[in-house]
């Protein structure tokens, strides 16, 4: 089962089963600290392993990030034409979340 | 409301910066569909998250086509999971609650209640921002396939970021 929030990108790869969560990227299996919803999403995704009967079926989960879809307008504004390229430099040194992580990894 | 067209959005972003078009991967053949051979409650489930997750103490990912993977024991405490991914702009919430992209708590719950037979001993991660399709095909995919085969999983649960 392939979970997906970027549906077009995922579909282009043609995995056999997709469960779509229409959330901003970084939340493929739920909103932060919403344990009930995270559990529902993962349960539904796993259920699709058995429930889907043919290749390239997609289940659209009944979730929405906000009431008015404002997050999508904002995402298109930030990530489309004229938006900022926010990717980090392509560097070959490990990028630790914290300096303490670097020390604990012996780097 | 329709899903966001990320490919078109990125194409327009790249054009506006004068970049070459991004070379999205398009599979040219239909996938093989494998029906489940036994009930979910008897299956051993393997997990891959492309979010750049690592356990504290492990080496973090780098941002230039890092094709390595990390094994994160299923007993790992959630607050021991950190992230390095070239699109750090998507990480603020996973860094507060890793379960947004590494659903380790939900999977442990589903294992405990018997909804799945068993969660494999380790969850795997990779850093999904790899620009070389050749290196994904020749390095990353064989590593993940081998890791899953070693764990003798019945089905894989993939969580792209």
In summary, what is this structure?
Chain A is α/β, with parallel strands linked by helices.
Describe this structure in words.
The complex is a heterodimer of chains A (107) and B (161). Chain A has 107 residues and is α/β, with parallel strands linked by helices. Chain A has helices at residues 7-13, 35-51, 70-79, 99-104; strands at 2-4, 17-20, 57-60. A three-stranded parallel β-sheet of chain A has the order 1-2-3, sandwiched between helices. The mean pLDDT of chain A is 95. At the A-B interface, strand 1, helix 1, helix 2, helix 3 and helix 4 of A face helix 1, helix 2, helix 3 and strand 7 of B.
Biggest interface, CB < 8 A: A-B, 71 and 77 residues
Quaternary organization: heterodimer
Low-confidence stretches of chain B: none
In N-to-C order, the SSE pattern of chain B is: HEEEEHHEEHE
Q: What characteristic shape of chain B results from the CA principal axes?
A: globular
Provide the helix percentage of chain A.
25-40%
Cα-atom radius of gyration of chain A: 17 Å
Percent of residues of chain B in helical segments? 25-40%
Distance between the termini of chain B: 21 Å
Strand content of chain B: 15-25%
Question: What's the total count of β strands of chain A?
Answer: 3
SS content category of chain A: alpha/beta
**Neighbour order of strands in the largest sheet of chain A:** 1-2-3
Cα shape of chain A: globular
Structural class of chain B: alpha/beta
Q: Whole-number average pLDDT of chain B?
A: 96
Order of secondary-structure elements of chain A? EHEHEHH
How large, in whole angstroms, is the Cα Rg of chain B? 17 Å
């Amino acid at each position: 089962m392939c979970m997906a929030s970027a549906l077009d990108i995922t579909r282009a790869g043609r995995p056999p089963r997709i469960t779509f969560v229409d959330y901003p990227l970084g939340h493929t299996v739920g909103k932060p600290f919403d344990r009930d919803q995270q559990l529902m999403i993962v349960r539904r995704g796993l259920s699709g392993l058995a429930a889907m009967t043919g290749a390239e079926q997609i289940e659209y989960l009944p979730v929405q990030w906000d009431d008015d879809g404002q997050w999508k307008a904002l995402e298109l504004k930030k990530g489309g034409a004229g938006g900022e390229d926010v990717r980090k430099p392509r560097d070959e040194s490990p990028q630790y979340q914290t300096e303490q992580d670097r020390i604990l990894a012996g780097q | 409301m329709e899903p966001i067209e990320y490919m078109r959005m990125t194409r327009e972003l790249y054009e506006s910066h004068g970049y070459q078009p991004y070379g999205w991967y398009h599979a040219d053949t239909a996938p093989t569909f494998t029906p489940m051979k036994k009930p979910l409650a008897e299956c051993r489930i393997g997990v891959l998250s492309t979010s750049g997750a690592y356990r504290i103490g492990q080496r973090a990912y780098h941002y230039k086509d890092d094709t390595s993977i990390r094994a994160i024991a299923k007993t790992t405490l959630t607050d021991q999971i950190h992230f390095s991914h070239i699109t750090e702009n998507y990480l603020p919430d996973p860094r507060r609650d890793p379960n947004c992209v590494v659903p380790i708590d939900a999977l442990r719950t589903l294992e405990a209640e018997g909804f799945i037979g068993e969660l494999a001993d380790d969850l795997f991660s990779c850093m999904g921002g790899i620009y070389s399709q050749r290196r994904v095909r020749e390095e990353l995919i064989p590593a993940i396939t081998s890791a899953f085969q070693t764990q003798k999983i019945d089905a894989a649960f993939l969580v792209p970021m």
